[in-house]
Amino acid sequence: MKNINSYRKFKRNKNEVNQDGEYILYWMQINRRLQYNYALEYAVALANKYDKPLLIFESVITNYPWASDRFHAFLLEGMKEHLDELKDTDVNYYCFAESEAGEMQGAFHALAENSVAVVADEYPVYIIRENNEKMAEEVDVPYISIDSNGIIPLDVTDKDPYSAYFFRRIMQEHFLEAYTNPPKKDPLDDLEDQKEVKLPDGFKEKYPKADEKLEDIPGFIRTLDINHDIGITDKKGTRQYALGKLGDFIAHGLHRYDEERNDPDADAASGLSPWLHFGLISEYEIVKAVLDHQPDGWDLDDITPNNGKNSGFFNGDPNVESFLDEVITWREVGFHFAHHRPDYDQFDSLPDWVLKTLKKHEDDKREWVYELEEFAQSQTHDEIWNAAQTQLRETGIMQNYLRMLWGKKIIEWTKDYRTALDYMIELNNRYALDGRDPNSYSGIFWCFGRFDRAWQERPIYGKLRYMTSDSTRKKLKLDQYLNKYGSQKSLL
Ligand SMILES: Cc1cc2nc3c(=O)[nH]c(=O)nc-3n(C[C@H](O)[C@H](O)[C@H](O)COP(=O)(O)OP(=O)(O)OC[C@H]3O[C@@H](n4cnc5c(N)ncnc54)[C@H](O)[C@@H]3O)c2cc1C
């Protein structure tokens, strides 16, 4: 039987390695961490196998969709952390930050040509998906992408999961095997050849390392042709920051997660999604840290597959169970969906029942209709919606329950469904630190019925699940939240 981790490997072009190559090239694109990273682990194993050094190439381009100061700063802070961590070691780490669009492609090609093989991060959406497809065709050495995204390897599913329940059944079947074959904490410890790599002639001059640019990140960012209107937030894009957040969550949020995660005032959720998105922290280590907080006496033998039900699988603390359902099932169902569906971001990828019901209601009269920038600047008639949008715009995050309401209302207050989808993708990915992620598309498309079922029919929504600000106000603790973000409206 195949080891579960073999489902993480995607050989994208040829098999014959370039024996004359100088190094194994690991292109760190999205899982930007040196720990608990299967792709890095695989690259180290290849380097040892071919008796070659390893070169880690981490890059940031300028012309990625929704490029802005906010995401750029986050990315560069992570690179700076790697630079600091590796500066007194023999690890060959080349960090590269484009000043002009297109430079990174040139740098990557030059490095790939001189390599034995390329190892890259597998990722099912956004430019990383495109990069892997395109670069594998363009290079003349083996290009292997490795999935280090979640607990259940992407290729374990053989088709797109249509619901969380369907995916949870698969998760329950494979969890123990996957969890007990974890990524290594420090894969670089196994690296045998620590020689300095020989870079292509003239490479360093043509594509200088980002080291100096990282000394003054805001100053460097100001020189770039990216969107400067989306400001840097107070959240640091480093692994240390993420580990601090995980520790805080376990100490203060986990024990009340099940009951309070939806209350904006309670602040009981982990807030880890931006760091998960940029791969600074791995899902595995979060799951491990949380499972270590099961009640005394609990162990892995208590895990009981229960045919996809959302409780009773982990069989311990209900808070742990509820959190793990979000971080494993809900996070990964979106990765697996996108992996099997290149059309993951297209309206027509919605289930048939959704397309049918929306067709029936497409001409329903809308009481309020807003344009994109009215939404962007929190200029609707609805106080809660405006506050949620202000939080997103100003801080780069939005609380989960309000995110659902936010999306549902955009459907209701936009002239037609396809425009609503475009607006949601634009606003989410323009402002959210965790945007441009498989879960951006799961969340947005969930508002349109993906992974959900049909509900009672009503105007505009058809059979989509319906949400209102009034019931949200009654159901959630929101006062402090509205004081904080509602009042900012006047600043705009
Ligand atoms: C319209 C809309 C847009 C969304 N856009 C994004 C996005 O761009 N990026 C993103 O990561 N998530 C998105 N989500 C899902 C969810 O809102 C966030 O993952 C969650 O709010 C992150 O906060 P947290 O880290 O405190 O989550 P916690 O409650 O602490 O959960 C831990 C982790 O589990 C995962 N998770 C939790 N809830 C969900 C969920 N409902 N769906 C999928 N994964 C989940 C996330 O990785 C999260 O970091 C969106 C949801 C909606 C309805």
UniProtKB/TrEMBL annotation:
Similarity comment: Belongs to the DNA photolyase class-2 family.
Name of the protein in its database record: Deoxyribodipyrimidine photo-lyase
InterPro entries found in the cross-reference section: Crypto/Photolyase_FAD-like_sf, Crypto/Photolyase_N_sf, DNA_photolyase_N, Photolyase_Class-2, Rossmann-like_a/b/a_fold
EC number: 4.1.99.3
PROSITE patterns, sorted: PHR_CRY_ALPHA_BETA
Domain annotation Photolyase/cryptochrome alpha/beta: ranges: 22-154
Organism: Gracilimonas mengyeensis
UniProt-listed Gene3D superfamilies: 1.25.40.80, DNA Cyclobutane Dipyrimidine Photolyase, subunit A, domain 3, HUPs
Parts of the chain that traverse the membrane: none
PANTHER family the UniProt entry points to: DEOXYRIBODIPYRIMIDINE PHOTO-LYASE, DEOXYRIBODIPYRIMIDINE PHOTOLYASE
